[in-house]
Design a protein that fits this description.
By secondary structure, the chain is mainly beta. It has two domains: 280 residues, Sandwich (Jelly Rolls), CATH 2.60.120.200; 246 residues, Pectate Lyase C-like. The chain has two helices and 57 strands. The chain has a 28-stranded mixed sheet that branches. A 13-stranded parallel sheet has the order 20-22-25-28-31-34-37-40-43-46-49-52-55. Strands 2, 3, 4, 5, 6, 8, 13, 14, 15 and 17 form a ten-stranded antiparallel sheet that branches. The longest helix is centred in the N-terminal third of the chain and has 7 residues. The N and C termini lie far apart (77 Å).
Amino acid sequence: MQTSLTFPKKSALLLGGFLSCCLFCVSGTLSAQTVIYQQNFDSRTAGPYDDAALDEDWNEPRFNNGVTEGRVSVVTGDDAFGGTGSALAVDYPANVHGTRETGAQWQLDLGQSFEEVTLSYRVRFAPGFDFVRGGKIPGLAGGTAPTGSRQATGFNGWTGRMMWRTDFNGTSGQPQQLTTGGITYTKHTTSGFAGDGVQEDRNRWMNPDGSNTVMVADQWYKVTQRIVMNTPGEFDGIQQIFLDDVMVIDERNLRFRLDDSFAIDQVYFSTFYGGNENWRTSKAEVAFFDDFVVTVPDSDPVEPGNSETLLVPAEFGTIAAAIRAANEGDTIQFAGVHSENVTVNKSVRLVGDLDAVLVPADAAQPAIIIGASDVELANFEVDGGRQNIISRSGNENLTIDGLFLTNSATVGILIRPTCHGLTIRNTEIRNSGSDGLRVLVSDDVVLEDNFSVQNGGHGYRLIQSNNGTFTRNRTLMNGLHGYRLDGDRMMLMDNLALQNGLRGIDFDGGTDHFLFDNLARDNASHGIAFNEATNSLIFDNRSRSNGASGIRIWAGSNNNVLDDNNTTANGNHGILIGVSQGNSIINSFVFENQRSGILLARSTTGNSVTNNIVRSNIEFGIGDFGGNDSDVGNVVEDNGR
């Protein structure tokens, strides 16, 4: 069983008691450092670097790409740094790219979590090395270390890998790239082109005089990376990178995390030609790595807790066996495809590694049953089952992060009554026979950055559940409504409802809702609909090209404020109010709807329509057939009547 380490299991790994021997200079200030890991491979003889050597030197990594496949070896003499001792050589075969076929990857578990860590190592590219467009080199990381298209949400982790990167944008061998610069490749909550934590930041390493750094083949370079974690939620994290002890990156406004559930706990050894086939080398290449050192400030190390990580299948043949052996607070981490039905009856984390997939052995039963509070599921796929996940009544504080759920016979995720404190992030629910998510009588539901697509029923369904927060979720092509919500105090911000079989966003009762900056488009019925829902603010939403009305306020939906919304090209009315009173429609844009722009039905009283622009609707602009105030400051132009 792999445990959090205070002292090393191997002499070359984490250094027992640590070594207080290092001074590190940051912007001219010296601070005492403690060495917690160092590895120069000098105990190794020339030849293949196998799985046993990897485990001994790097604290038994949970996975590797490249070592098992024979792409890593030990070299000695002139190929090692300083011409003595040993170093690692990593091969990059010709005409391939990515982690499975070129270079090598694994993660060093530091055994503890730290607020500040400095990593340094040596790297040399072989004589005649073709840098092509670029490739990855190691860096620090924390939490689940999201890479690829996996988003850094602030609750799951971050990565700080780096890259060699040229200005060349062509294909391999056209022409050979003999020099390169360096860039960051850091994934955090606001990284990437869209600032959403999906892509990585790619900032050039710059010399103090403002020029780009230049690296060449057949020369050793020392790369140093210092990371200081941010105060949770604040933009005060630090990343500094040094090339041969010269600072080339100084970033001081990073937000790695939104809570304190992770910090810095691993070195992500990662090197390969990255991107697509245009990044491949046309001839086999080699790079050399040596002298890895990890340090922390003398006062920093955070003592690890008593939790353990149980590995499936390395230590336990099944997930169920690992859960039986686990203590409260432990992590069960599994890799590969597993065929079993799982009951999580302890407060543990069930986490996938790489391409982890759970397929229920009995497809007529739920794939995963949650039978305890304070359970977390993260980073794996569930394919099939009566439900992909079901939580029994009364289990609170369930977290689901980064799952791909597909092909359940009924509901993708079913939450039984009084399971308060549900959080779902970065999860896709697809092809369920009924609803993607159904929550019964459970308050305090948080959904962020999820995708519910092509389910037979609703995308997301909350029944008698209060205090729901929906942020940046997407529903697409579900058989019924995209969002069907029943309860009080629902907050929806920046969500999408697209091409669903009935309504995009539907409120079935409740009060004090808040809708801001949502988009409902191309749904078969209404874009946004309120039924017996009161005292809500509907602000800056867009509802267009839906089969019926853009926004419908109906059946006792009283005292709502519709402000600055845009309803365009809907099949019936832009905004429809019926059997309701005391609503306000202000500052909205209502264009090109197939019937009226704004219709107040005969049974409406006391509603106001003020300062709206109502234009080019087919039948008429504003139709008031009840006792309402609908003629104050509106611009009504080019409508049918």
